[in-house]
Amino acid sequence: MNVPEDLKYTKDHEWIKIEGDVATIGITDFAQGELGDIVYVEVETLDETLGAESVFGTVEAVKTVSDLFMPLTGKIIALNEILEDAPETVNEDAYGLGWMIKIKLSDTSEINNLLDAQAYLSLVTG
């Protein structure tokens, strides 16, 4: 299982890449594997400021639909438009081209609430 050391994670299986006051967010390799073939990603919250734990969209797989949760409070400033025509990119490259949103952070101290790679690996491997 791929769990890059340079990212942060949530118990809801999102990954977060922090660059200054901007965070790129997607779902983990574990999550995309559990979901199976992803057929649709819906995010209708562009330009909205949402609190941590708020739902920012959904990901639809062949078998299920799952909510996507904000790992940090912030304003959604970008959507990954590749996913509109190619949602399977999340399956193929979860930590690269399969990112979902970028947010401008409202409170960088919230980063301390995220899991590091070891803690996330412990969560999913039990």
CATH class: Mainly Beta
Count up the domains.
1
Would you list the SSEs in sequence order as H and E? EEEHEEEEEHHEH
Number of strands: 9
> Helix count?
4
Name the CATH architecture: Beta Barrel
> CATH superfamily, please?
RNA polymerase II/Efflux pump adaptor protein, barrel-sandwich hybrid domain
The overall pLDDT, averaged over residues, is 97
Which runs of at least 5 residues are low in confidence (pLDDT < 50)? none
Shape: globular
Q: What is the fold named in CATH at topology level?
A: OB fold (Dihydrolipoamide Acetyltransferase, E2P)
Verbal overview:
It is a single chain. It is built from four helices and nine strands; from the N terminus they run βββαβββββααβα. The longest helix has 9 residues. Helix content is 19%, strand content 35%. The protein has a six-stranded antiparallel β-sheet. With 126 residues, the chain is an alpha+beta fold. It is globular, with a radius of gyration of 13 Å. The two termini are 14 Å apart. It has a single domain, classed as OB fold (Dihydrolipoamide Acetyltransferase, E2P) (Beta Barrel).
Please describe the structure with a list of short key phrases separated by commas or semicolons:
126 residues, alpha+beta, OB fold (Dihydrolipoamide Acetyltransferase, E2P), 3-stranded antiparallel β-sheet, 4 helices, 9 strands, 19% helix, 35% strand
In short:
It contains four helices and nine strands, in the order E-E-E-H-E-E-E-E-E-H-H-E-H.
